[in-house]
Amino acid sequence: MPIRFHEKKKEFHIYNDKISYIFKILANGHLGHAYYGKRLTDREDFGCLIEYAMRDMAPCTFEGNNRFSLEHLKQEYPSYGSGDMRFPAFELERTDGSRVVDFKYQKHEIYNGKKKLLGLPAVYVEEETEAETLEVTLEDVQIGARIVLSYTIFQALPVIARNTCFYCDGESITLLNAMSGSIDLPDKEYEMVELAGAWSRERHVNVRPLGYGIQSIYSLRGCSSHQFNPFLALKRKNTDEHSGEVIGASLVYSGDFLAQVEVDNFDVTRLVMGIHPNEFCWELNPKEHFQTPEMLLVYSENGLNGMSQTFHQLYRTRLARGKWRDKGRPILLNNWEATYFDFNEEKLLALAKRAAEIGVELFVLDDGWFGKRNDATSSLGDWKVNTEKLPGGMKSLSERIKEMGMGFGLWIEPEMVNKDSQLFREHPDWVLADNRRNYCHSRNQYVLDFSKAEVVDYIYGQLKEVLGEADISYVKWDMNRSFSEVFSNGMDRSWQGKVRHKYILGVYDLYERLTQEFPDILFESCASGGARFDPGILYYAPQGWTSDDTDAVERVKIQYGTSYVYPLSSMGSHVSASPNHQVFRYTSLETRANVAYFGTFGYELDLTELSKQELREMKGQILFMKRYRELIQQGVFYRLESPFENNSSAWMVVSEDQKEALAVYFRVLQPTQAGFKRIRLAGLRADWEYSVEEVSGAGSLSKERNGRFGDELMYAGLSVSDVSSGLPGVAEEKQGDFLSRLFRLKRIEI
What we know:
Layout: E1 3-6, E2 11-15, E3 19-25, E4 31-38, E5 90-94, E6 104-112, E7 131-140, E8 145-154, E9 159-168, E10 173-185, E11 191-196, E12 204-209, E13 213-219, E14 228-235, E15 246-252, E16 257-263, E17 269-275, E18 282-284, E19 289-291, E20 294-300, H1 303-318, E21 332-334, H2 336-339, H3 345-357, E22 362-365, H4 393-403, E23 407-412, E24 416-417, H5 422-426, E25 446-447, H6 453-469, E26 474-477, H7 493-496, H8 499-517, E27 522-525, H9 535-538, E28 543-545, H10 552-562, E29 571-572, E30 574-576, H11 589-596, E31 602-604, H12 612-634, E32 636-641, E33 648-654, E34 660-667, E35 678-679, E36 689-695, E37 701-709, H13 710-716, E38 718-719, E39 739-747
Parallel strand pairs: 21-22, 21-31, 22-23, 23-26, 26-27, 27-28, 28-29, 30-31
Antiparallel strand pairs: 1-2, 2-3, 3-4, 5-10, 6-7, 7-8, 8-9, 9-19, 9-20, 10-17, 10-18, 11-12, 11-14, 13-16, 14-15, 15-20, 16-17, 24-25, 32-33, 33-34, 34-39, 35-38, 36-37, 36-39
Helix pairs in contact: 6-8, 10-11
């Protein structure tokens, strides 16, 4: 796994068994990009991959040389104003207003392992031999500033981790744009894949061909957002789930971001990704520096599944941290949909007793336990137990839950405040808004100014006391509104351009302090469902509320799109009441469970209102999930059929040793007189024979099939034909709309 610097040609080659990343020092001292993709044999000179041309109207760097122009060269970390007319990776301003820069190669360092990013989440190594890092220092001598570009390649994965750090050594400068990374690709024959949506339909897959000019996704909401995820992929037009080239880019960040692709008029494709420059303005004085978030590049020649599996392995094992990283996640019951704000200790204990009887492992108390919180209008910021609802306090309740054999969890929303709260009355200047003006609310709440250390310290003190006084094993961390009027009251002008980023740094700081203080607690992130489901938060909370929408049909799309980047172990996935609260759709308990299995699994409904038959079925579901929890949460995931293109969809998860698998097929509406239907499985050993069993939601076998070899299952496929295809007697109990069929595969040992 070497990183080579070929001194004679001044070229860097970063490579492992799977990928190569090549760039060189150009004649003007800038860095020129040569190649990123499938592994190339190392050699001394890749100069042929960088081409020069004489083009009319091009600004040329050297007198007498009409071929060297930055406008037509592929670059590593481009600036604007020195000949390149495209969108830059960074922009800075000197005290006299000049934005002209000239950062040239100064030195480089290659070392084993990977450094931490101070105050920021990032992927990591447990052994230095897992990765190698190149740091290239660029310097503008006149300004007295340095840029350090960092590249880390993992030994076993087709991943390049990039970040950028700016150092001020001379005069004061102001950063106006600071992307985490940039890459110029030699052609435009790509399709852009993005995860787009809105509240309750997050991370839907959208694919569009690249065109000339700029196409981008972004957030200006203070969080990564329901609307777009900080990820995009560039795939070749013939690339599908199983074959073809694709480059995936993911930003390990939770705030405002920009992921942008620019195609110039000579067909060069430039990808940049980082903090959104809108309202970003960061002054650096001598001896100060600015660190960008981390950008991850993944290359796959094995289609979108290959890209996703790399992200899954990396994020599950080298981004998520702590006690719960590799552990099976507890099956929970959340009380919200059962009680909303209307509960007391007696009602909670009755619900918990029923949960314990069917095998639930964790009881979670959601919103309404603190201050005078009986609706959404009050008490956020006052993190004291409401003793009218819970006379014995949180300690007593948690102990009684534990006596039932379950863990106890708690909901918090530490970044928000209501006007009707003691906190707001004492500190109205702690709201992130210009308090001289009217400012927007959302859900009757406002954003606390986490750019101020004293605000973070205050909330930390309150939560430390709450979490320390009771036996709490789980925390659901919510965040239920976007930014609107961004202003930090009482701070000077220079502070305001830093607020959006400093807010997220404050969130990370609070997460870091609480997770270190309470290492045994499983933290689950939530932001109005899926508004902050991103790699940055995954560093602190190994699982997240995937969406507020728990309808099984909608969740197939949401979880399918989420799986492009995020492992199943990160997806909070629950069975809720039917009809569903978002779309009022009736779906069977079986189908709801078959979708929710492929995540962390739990329930959000009132168990006291269910029939004995429903409770028996749920007990069977819990037994099934406990049996296959490790396979689901740590196996290799394959998408088989897209719900965005068909009336049906399918996916599966395979154990690493390929001896066991679960496959699921979903059909939305039942057609009549349809053709026969097969799904082609993936990830099996072609020469192994597997038993195939169709599993009901209650955990018993509804149909057992003869053994099939892996090659037959993958290339001929598994029949899922039913009465829609004129086959009466096939899975008759599961006919109609919103059907799901779950299959269990196991190697037949000779």
